[in-house]
Amino acid sequence: MRILVLGGDGYLGWPTSLYLSRKGHDVGVVDNFLRRTYDNEMGVDSLVPIQQLQRRVSRWEEISGFQIDTFIGDLTDAPFIYKVIKEFSPQAIVHFAEQRSAPYSMIDRGHAVHTQVNNVVGTLNLLYAIAEIDPSIHLVKLGTMGEYGTPNIDIEEGYIEITHRGRKDILPFPKQPGSFYHLSKVHDSHNIHFACKIWGLAATDLNQGVVYGQETEETALHPDLATRFDYDAVFGTVLNRFCVQAAVGKPLTIYGSGNQTRGMLDIRDTLACVELAIENPASPGEMRVFNQFTESFSVSELAALVAEAAPKSVNIDFIEDPRVEAQEHHYRAAHTKLLDLGLAPHLLSQSLLRKLVVLGETYSARVNPDAILPTVKWKTTKSQLLTSSLNSL
Ligand code: NAD
Ligand code: USQ
Description:
The chain is of the alpha/beta class. The protein is built from 13 helices and 14 strands.
């Protein structure tokens, strides 16, 4: 198939592009290197050195013999994305290309606005481009489990059957996201749902949990093919951070009680899930939702597992939660649809955790110790709010 991967220079987009290319698909990568500019803004860098996109692609072509087309530009630039879709003529589009950090979106007004404009406008441009150029293109969109929040009932896959005052309907599952980033995903989901309804588009919304890991079969073929690995408090995700903290002898940073529970998955399963969604497309007019995670853990459970895997002794610190989030909550989320399509999960293992700690040790000289503790707080003070609103005048 001809598959366009939006955000194909990122943590997940790059290994997905290689994986699909190796499977014999014609892959095109779109990216505007926004993620690399956030590194400059935040004064951090991927733990593992990564090559520029053109270097990565030429190394891949040399090793695999498969070609990957690249298109450098911004999804919020409508003429750009129209041109790419006309030129590449994809049958499926995998959309990873968003600002994906919750803390980044909560820095201040400007970062919240940037996140929502980048994500919501980019996706809206894409929906129009698909509808106007070729409505048969299957859109596979990366959403997030965080769209649901932590309701006191079991979470379903996208939709819930509700009986109200004697009448029954199947409705989108209620959304209670926990950051302006997670909210941008909810806005996207609504826009995609509506576009499927009015234009007959076919879309799969992959409500993905927190991803961990760094290596895939393809990225392991050469150091130039490595994907990024973030450990800092803004872009690093919880388990990846804990492994690097253990590697450099810093205490593991549990926010609050540590009883917050999240759905998680191995990076290799992200690739497999995307492939399953592409191979089994949604029908015209359908917006399907798959909950894309394989296991759930509380933050404290993750810290204990990392401490057990680390070769040296590890301290665990309970620090004040910089976020506003439920720490004691019910968490049981359905995730059977991808398993039904044949997903064979890589469950979290001590051997993988050890490998990630060793990765942290290998690149410990690249760790910026000032980037480990969280600095972004969800609760904005009155004076900050005033400055923010004045800035917008
Ligand atoms: P990432 O930031 O590493 O990759 C995103 C890529 O998209 C970057 O290369 C960035 O430059 C590009 N991009 C962003 N905005 C763009 C725009 N307007 N035009 C063109 N390119 C743009 O993020 P990731 O961790 O690879 O996540 C990919 C997707 O998966 C995101 O949508 C994210 O919300 C979702 N997701 C990630 C995780 C996770 O744990 N990493 C979990 C659940 C969902
Ligand atoms: N946490 C800690 N200590 C840390 C880091 C995080 O206790 O050092 C806690 C957080 O408070 C939170 C949980 O761990 O309760 C998860 O935090 P995270 O930073 O790993 O994940 P999150 O902010 O939710 O975002 C990440 C990705 C995002 C994706 C989301 C999936 O950055 O793109 O959408 O995971 S989900 O969580 O299912 O919404």
